[in-house]
Fold:
Amino acid sequence: MHNILLKKIENKTAVIGIIGLGYVGLPLALEYALKGFKTIGFDIDERKIPLLKSGKSYIKHISEEKIKKAVNSKKFSATSDFTRLPEADAIIICVPTPLNEHREPDMTFIENSGKIISQYLRKGQFVSLESSTYPGTTEEILLPMFEKAPIIQSSVNSKQSAKVKIKQFVVGKDFFLAFSPEREDPNNPNYSTATIPKVVGGVTPNCLKVALALYNQVIVKTIPVSSPRAAEATKLLENIYRSINIALVNELKMVFDRMNIDIWEVVKAASTKPFGFQPFYPGPGLGGHCIPIDPFYLTWKAREFEISTKFIELAGEINTYMPYYVVEKAGEVLNKFKKSLNGSKVLILGASYKKDIDDMRESPSLKLIEILREKGAKVDYNDPYVPKLPKTRKYNYDMKSVVINKNTLAKYDLVLLSTDHSNYDYKFIDVNAKLILDTRNAFEKNGIKSKKVFKG
Structure:
């Protein structure tokens, strides 16, 4: 069975189905379509479908030109009709894996995807999970669902129209299952979906063969590992590594601030060492879908094995505290000029979690708004890529981006830079703002040393 699928992949007659057309799924679907594979994108968000059909993009860094090219080639289509899943030879799951209110994994999206696939699973199909998750997810959640799905066929008795159960699926023989973690970095000019090496772990050797053959069609390099669990753990290590190092530099930022030492100067100087050091930079808090979330997936799973992940949890505590620290700094800066945070007008610059993108997932700016309002501040925001704050699982602000001009800046008691977008005119902001709290060292990076600017 796997040889038939390998042949289809090799001659590009395999149909690719992508579940979830967000920051991970959409670029992957476009890669397959532009490489000549018929690709069907599935999403429960009905608003995305007509946009994609008309060649429009709802993600800033994914060009409409690329979408139009894929649509016009007749190789890419988008739908919310999951009854079309049997059309796909390979199904790739790219759905969110958030945390719930108790900072525990919310597996709803993966479970729902698995349930609907199991309804339509047919012999010879390949399924790959790309969503960041804890080690064991693929084999503990998806595998049992698919193995229990009955293989059915029409009754040979023409008078009997009902279908009858024959047997259940066997992984590696009737269907193929793998985990391959996404490694997207939105708007990174040096790396794209196709040029980032991809880790792949299959449930069986045949599963791995199919997975490698499929991803090798669009990815520059694949890295096979022994199991889905190893692949799942790889993704967590990558993001825990960053989380811990960011927590370290965030803690040093607070320590050095008390010592009247500039953390940015220290990191710059340390970066001159040609070995044994990689620079990480402080900020107002962690953002994006991976780094603020993935470490907690492992801490949750580790409890099952009676292990306490103290190091990881401490890093999480420090990073979670950073928005509170920034608000404390805002209060200190205003206090120097005999102003109270309570009643002050604050303008937050940047709503997305990183520069030059429109991605709001886990953005620290949302937490900053919440804390500042709790302290009695009147808060507005500006972001050239986020005209209106979207509803998230935790926040539902009815706020629109204000226009930056001379008069606008002058009316705020404090301008708080949260996201250092490249197209901000930092000199203009410095000239016209009363006070500035810079959490990204953006003003100094742009050659501005001003008594109005404070680092936070």
In short: The longest strand covers residues 163-168.
